[in-house]
Structure formats: structure tokens, C-alpha cells
Design brief:
- The chain is an alpha/beta fold.
- It has one domain: Decaprenyl diphosphate synthase-like (Undecaprenyl pyrophosphate synthetase, 3-Layer(aba) Sandwich), CATH 3.40.1180.10.
- The protein is about 45% helix and about 15% strand.
- It has a six-stranded parallel β-sheet with strand order 3-4-2-1-5-6, with helices on both faces.
- The longest helix is centred in the middle third of the chain and has 25 residues, at about 70-95.
- About 35% of the residues are buried.
- The chain binds 3-methylbut-3-enyl trihydrogen diphosphate (IPE) (2 copies) and magnesium ion (MG).
């Protein structure tokens, strides 16, 4: 009898790691790795969209990434701004809906304005939902949910009360989380939502990620036995 296979995940989270090492291998500055990484983002969005994935959360900048040198942060913010501009231009051709998860403080005002404009421009789109984790930390997200519960005056809370007050409560928990570059850790990504996620770690560096690598992750996921505490 054929083994039962998992259906396509509805939601995939990706920890896009390894830009710096990709550049170092080529004796290039880290900024060159981030530029190539931005191209991999585009390829991955196209691939996920073609496959019919409903939600993709991309870890683009963590709350801990502020500890990097100012020049590197500037490169990342410049690339982000350029990407937001491009997506704004193609917003309605692509049918992608953009959401942002993260805190707005510390982000440059121009970027926050562009993020808001892109979220508004794509709000009615029905295709792939791209959730950009920007200035994102999962502990901060959980604290944000708890602070909302305190303001609402709840005395006791259920897990669902917390889930409903995360940054994007309408997005289902990710069935699959992918991390590139060989690191095997969450680095403050989706701690709450990952309770039953499957993890896929690949040594491929993020700038080398593409449709084929996404397919490999999906094939691996398909064969996993998800038990959710049952037998
Ligand atoms: C991922 O690549 C990009 C961000 C974290 C913004 P890194 O910049 O972390 O690359 P490595 O880990 O140094 O190779
Ligand atoms: C995680 O990568 C954050 C993003 C991909 C945005 P890092 O490179 O910052 O993670 P650590 O420092 O290796 O845990
Ligand atoms: Mg890294």
C-alpha cells in the first residue's frame, strides 16, 4: 500500500541565510551577497506562486540584525527600499498580497511609508500572500500579543487568545520552515507558530536558492510523518 503523503503546505516560512558566506566564498563584499540574495527572493516568490502556495513568510531582517555594522544595515535598507519600489510598480500585474510582520520602530520613515503603500496597493489581490518579516523577532511578537491582552483587561488567557493577537493572525501556522546555509536554529523566527512545523535545513546558501531547491524541500516535506502528538 502506498504511504500517505502530505499535501502541499499552505504556509512556508523561510529563514534566508548565507548571503555573507556566499560573498566571502567569492572574495566579494557582504553587500554583493545581499544583492544576490534579493534576486533569490524574486525567484522564490515566482516559484511559490506558480506552485500555488498560499502564504510565504520571508525572514528579511531580525530584531537582532541591528547589531550589524551600520554600513551593512544601510545596504540592507537600500535593497529593501528598492525591492518595495519594484513590487509597488508590479503590484497589480502579479496578484500578490503583501503583509508585514515586525515592529515599525527603528525602521527608516521612508521605508515604513513604502511598506504601508504596498500593503494597501495589494490588499485586494488574491494570489500568493507574501508576509515580510522585517524588524521581526518572535519574542517581541509574543510580548506584543500579551501587551494587547493586558490592555484588553483579560485575567486569564488561552493559547488561542495569544494566536489571535500576533502580527498577522489570519495566516495559518506554517506547516514547513526552511533554513538555508546549513545553520539549524530558529534565530527568533515564528517561535509560537512553529509549534508543529516541519523543519527543512539545507546547506545551500540563500543567493543560490531557486525553484529546484524549493521543490526538494517540498518533496522532503511530502514524505514526513506528521503525528501532532497522536500515534
Ligand atoms: C542572511 O544572510 C541575510 C540577513 C540576515 C539579513 P547573512 O547576512 O546572515 O549571511 P551569513 O550568515 O553571514 O553568511
Ligand atoms: C536570521 O539570520 C535572520 C534572517 C535571516 C533575517 P542570522 O544570520 O541573523 O541568524 P544567526 O545570527 O546566524 O542566528
Ligand atoms: Mg546569517
Amino acid at each position: 500500500m502506498a504511504e500517505k503523503q502530505n499535501a502541499l503546505p499552505r504556509h512556508i516560512g523561510i529563514i534566508m541565510d548565507g548571503n555573507g558566506r556566499w560573498a566571502a566564498q567569492r572574495a566579494l563584499p557582504r553587500s554583493a551577497g545581499h544583492r544576490e540574495g534579493a534576486k533569490a527572493v524574486k525567484r522564490t516568490l515566482e516559484a511559490a506562486s506558480q506552485l500555488g502556495i498560499a502564504y510565504l513568510t520571508l525572514y528579511a531582517f531580525s530584531t537582532e540584525n541591528w547589531s550589524r555594522p551600520p554600513e551593512e544595515i544601510q545596504t540592507l535598507m537600500d535593497l529593501l527600499e528598492k525591492t518595495l519600489d519594484e513590487y509597488q510598480k508590479s503590484a497589480n500585474k502579479k496578484d500578490w498580497r503583501v503583509l508585514i510582520s515586525g515592529e515599525r520602530d527603528r525602521l527608516p520613515a521612508a521605508i515604513v511609508a513604502k511598506m504601508d503603500a504596498l500593503v494597501r496597493a495589494t490588499a485586494e489581490n488574491k494570489g500568493l500572500t507574501v508576509n515580510l518579516a522585517l524588524n521581526y523577532g518572535a519574542r517581541q511578537e509574543i510580548a506584543h500579543a500579551v501587551n494587547r491582552l493586558i490592555k484588553e483587561g483579560l485575567q486569564t488567557v488561552t493559547p488561542q487568545d495569544i494566536s489571535l493577537r500576533l502580527y498577522q493572525p489570519q495566516i495559518p501556522d506554517p506547516e514547513l520552515i526552511i533554513r538555508t546555509s546549513g545553520e539549524e536554529r530558529l534565530s527568533n523566527f515564528l517561535l509560537w507558530q512553529a509549534a508543529y512545523s516541519e523543519f527543512y535545513f539545507t546547506p545551500v546558501l540563500w543567493p543560490d536558492f531557486n525553484a529546484e531547491e524549493l521543490q526538494k524541500a517540498l518533496e522532503d516535506y511530502r514524505a514526513r510523518k506528521r503525528r501532532f502528538g497522536g500515534v
